[in-house]
Amino acid sequence: MLFIHGFPEFWYSWRHQLKEFSKDYWTVAVDMRGYGDSEKPQGVKYYKMKYLIEDVKNIIEALGKEKCILVGHDWGGAIAWNFIYTYPQYIEAYIIMNCPHPTVYKKYLTSNFAQFQKSWYFFFFQAPYLPELFMRMNDMALVVSSFRSKKNPNPITENDLEAYKFIFGKPGGFTCPVNYYRANLIKSSLKRNKDVEVPQGLLIFGDQDLAIETSTAEETAKTVPNLTLQIIPGASHFVQQDEPEEVNKAIHEFLNNIKAI
């Protein structure tokens, strides 16, 4: 199982899943390009989706594997969607959290005012310097508040928060992650090949996501074949940290059903 995180996260955001699924699988969670201890190419162009997809392919090959169960959240989910259609031969199954299919997201962004409002940060992040300053303000208050939900106001511990602050508090800690938004605003690199047989997938979605409308997940489930949708009531955008037990249960059920096929 290969876990790829989103923004603003690093490998540690998968700690609950790594502990649970390492009992039955070889679990690997990485810091994506530009995050944590991974390489940080300088320049927006190096964060285009085509490079992010190749990173995942290279990781799978470096681990000596032919296939994986790919698990992605947020930007990790967007990368996973693109990877599935580009390199389906590497995918045994996939699990995506709080990230609709890119085509559905683009449709909602241009036709649904509620989603357009929720996506304000996507446009703000196009500005130079200001987004990084904004994310660092008041001891990274925005990062801290984003992890909280009405159902679970304190889903992560103070020690967890310190880990995030340490990673993103390094010089330039936010610049490369924000470059994901700068490099991929205009055009998605997703090419939907009708001849591609999409593997079995699971879309997990916390319905209290402040950035993405839940209806995008429902639309995705209608659009993508072989996809199971599991909505987690009351969970935030960071569903795998907010409600780890419910998320892990949904993953177990999905993987067990695949084995039974």
UniProtKB/TrEMBL annotation:
It comes from the Eukaryota. InterPro entries: AB_hydrolase_1, AB_hydrolase_fold, Epox_hydrolase-like. The keyword Hydrolase applies. Gene3D superfamilies: alpha/beta hydrolase. The keyword Hydrolase applies. Keywords: Hydrolase. One of its GO terms (molecular function) is epoxide hydrolase activity. It holds the Pfam family Abhydrolase_1. Residues 1-244 form the AB hydrolase-1 domain. Signal peptide: none annotated. Belongs to the AB hydrolase superfamily. Epoxide hydrolase family. This is AB hydrolase-1 domain-containing protein. It comes from Ranatra chinensis. The lineage of its organism: Eukaryota, Metazoa, Ecdysozoa, Arthropoda, Hexapoda.
